[in-house]
Amino acid sequence: MTGYGDVGGGYGLATGIGVLLVLTLVALAAASTRRRYRRRSIAKKASSTANTAAHQGSTGASPARRTPQPREASTPGLIRKDRIALLIAEGLVIRERLAGDIDAATYQSRMHELACGRRT
């Protein structure tokens, strides 16, 4: 029997925490593997669809080597370069407004132009 403040019977708690940590690690590894597999299967489906559409009606000659698509087009979720340019332009307009270089009406008109895509 252990008294108050003695260390001796805490193996159950330590074992439980260890098991939870191991289970968390396994769950994270499984989720990462599933994401990687899903990306590959989506890319394979997209490339097989592109190959089928590109080679319909071929004369039996071996198809030319397919050039890889840009990473922006093949990977969903990436921000396109034009979107980045618009965000930078928006930041510059905000900076001018906060510095007091432009008035509210000019700020609103420039932001409207950015939103409509007339200005970059």
TrEMBL record:
What are the Low complexity biased-composition ranges?
44-54
Membrane-crossing ranges are 12-31
Superkingdom of source: Bacteria
Name the segments for region: Disordered.
Answer: 35-77
Entry keywords, A to Z:
Membrane, Transmembrane, Transmembrane helix
Return the protein name: Uncharacterized protein
